[in-house]
Amino acid sequence: MLVSPKSFFLFAGEYTDLLVDLFHHPEGLTDGELLDLIHRHLAGAGDARQNILDRLLKLGFIEPAPEATSRYELTRVVQNLIGHLLHEQRLSSAAVVQGYLDDLAALSGELEGALLRRGRSTAERALSDIATQLERIRSDSRANRDSITQEVLRLKANRENRSAVARWEAVNRIWERYLVPLRELIEVGQAMDTCLDRLGRLLEQGHELFATEPELVQLFVRQRARLRRMRREVADDHRESMSEVAPLYQSLRRDTRLLRGAAEAIDAFSRGGPSALPLDPGFTLSVFRLDGLIHDGTLESYLTGIIGYRERAPSGPILPPEPPTPPFIIESAELNARLAAALPVDDVLAWLFLNYSAAPPAELLRGFALVLANSEAGLEATDRSEETYEAGPVVFQAHPVRAVCA
Amino acid sequence: MTSDATKLPLLRELFRRLARGRHLCVDDGELFWALDNAFDEYQQLFLALGFVLKRHARDFFYFEGDGVSEIAQRMAVFLFILIEKIGDEGRPVTDALLGAEWTISRLPHFSTERYRKYMERLDVPDEARLRAVLQSLERYGFVQITGPDSFRFRTPIYRFLDLCVALGEQAEREGSGS
Prior knowledge:
- The complex is a heterodimer.
- Chain A has 14 helices and seven strands.
- By secondary structure, chain A is mainly alpha-helical.
- In chain B, the strands form two sheets. Chain B has a three-stranded antiparallel sheet, with helices on one face. Chain B has a two-stranded antiparallel ribbon with strand order 1-2.
- Chain B is globular, with a radius of gyration of 18 Å.
- Chains A and B meet through helix 8, helix 10 and helix 11 of A and helix 4, helix 6, helix 7 and helix 8 of B.
C-alpha cells in the first residue's frame, strides 16, 4: 500500500524517540509490550495508544513478525534508515557485497550487449541500474565503516563492563566475518577489482561509441565518476575500519590469551598444588650462592614460614628431675654378718644371688670376692660339677663353694 | 670484546644484583644504561662465568634462571590471581597492571574463599605474608614499593605476562586441535 511521504515523515518527526526505542528492540515486541512502550513515551496517551499502534502499522513503520502475528518489529526500510541516522546499521558481510558484484557483473553484460547492438534505451536502463548498484555498494561500505567505528568505541569505553573475553568475541567477529573477507574481496586483482575494471572499460567504450549523443554521453560520464568515487570511498572506508579495529583486535586477542593462560595456570595449581604450576622453562629466576651458604630463597622461605611466631610460655610448672637411683653396693660387714647367720651354706654363690638379687652382676661378683677374702668364712671347695648361675642377662658357670661354721 | 672486560662499568654491582635474580629496567638508572650501552660485552663476560644475560623485548635485563623456587611459585600465583580479577572486571589487563599504583590492603587475594585457599596453600594466610611476597617481587625487580601501603609494577612484569600469553596460545592450539 502506498504511503504518503509527508504523513510518514510527520509521524516520524512527532514520535522519533519511540521509533528509536523500537529500533533498539530488534527481537520485536508483543502488542502488549508495544502499548506499554507507547505509554512510556507518551504518558497520558490513554486510548490514543491503540491509535498510535495502528498508525505505526498503517504507515509501514512496523509489521507483524514472521513467527507470530501478535508480535511486531520495525520494517527493514525503517530499520536501515534509523540505523543509518544513528550510525548503528547492520554490517554488510562480504557475501552481501559479492551479491552486489554479481548483479553488477550481470548489468555489465547487459551494457556490453547494448554497446554491441548500439541499443540506446537498453544502455540507458543498464546505466540506471548500474548507478543504483554502485550507490548501494558505496552506501553499505560507509554504513559498515560507521557501524564498526561505533562498535569499537563502545568496546573501548566498555560501559557495560563486559569481560575481555566477551569483548574479544565481539571484535573478533567483526574482524573475521566482515573485515578480512571484505579485504580479500576488494584487494587489487580480486573479485571487486576485476568486476569494476571491466565496468570501467565498458563505460569508456560507451562514452566513445555514443559520442554524438550528448545526453547519453553525460550518463556515461556520470557513471564513470560514480564508479571512481565508489572505488575510492570503498577502499578508504575499509582502510579506516581496519585501522580502527586492528589495535583493539590485537590488544583484546593478547588480553584473552593472557587471561586464558592465567586461568590455565590457576587451574593446574588448584588441582595439583604449587609443583603443578607450569612455570618451567618459561619463568625461572637466577639463584647464586657461595658454597656452604644457605640459598637466599630457601632462607626466605624459612623466615616466611616463621613470620608471626610467638613464643609460648610452658603450660605447667617445671618439675624437678627425679633423684638419681643410688648404685647397689654390697657392704662387706653386712654381707659377712648375714652369711655367718645363715651358716652352713651349701653354695655361697647361689646364696649370694638369692639374697642379693637386686645387685647387678658385677656387684655380685664383688660380693663373692668379699666372701672369699673373709678368712673367717670357713669356705670349702666341693667336688660337685660346675653349676650355672643367672644374674639377669649374665650367666655364670662355677664350681660351688661351701661355707661352714668356722 | 674489550681487551679488559673487567673494566666494564658497574660490573661488581651488576653481577651482584643480576646473579641474585634481579631484573634491571630503565628505572634502575645507571645500572640499566651500563648494560644497554655495552650489552654484547657484558653478555660475553657473564657467559664465560656460566651466566646467560638476557635482554627482553620490553627493554629490561636479567640472568636466565635454572629452576623454579617456592618464591617464584608464590609470586606467580600472586600475579595470576590479580590478572584474573582484572579480567573479571572487564579492564585491559596490561594497562591495569602497569598503569596504576596499587593499594596493598585492597588487593583481592583474600577477597574470596577460593583465593584464600590458594594463598593458604602457598603458606600465605594473611596480609603480613602477602607483604612478604611483595617484598620478594621488589627484590627481583618486578614491583617498586612506593609507600607503606602502595606499590606499582615495573616492566619486568612482562615475564609473567609473556608466560600467561604462551600458556593461552598453547591452550588455544590444544583446543583447536581437539
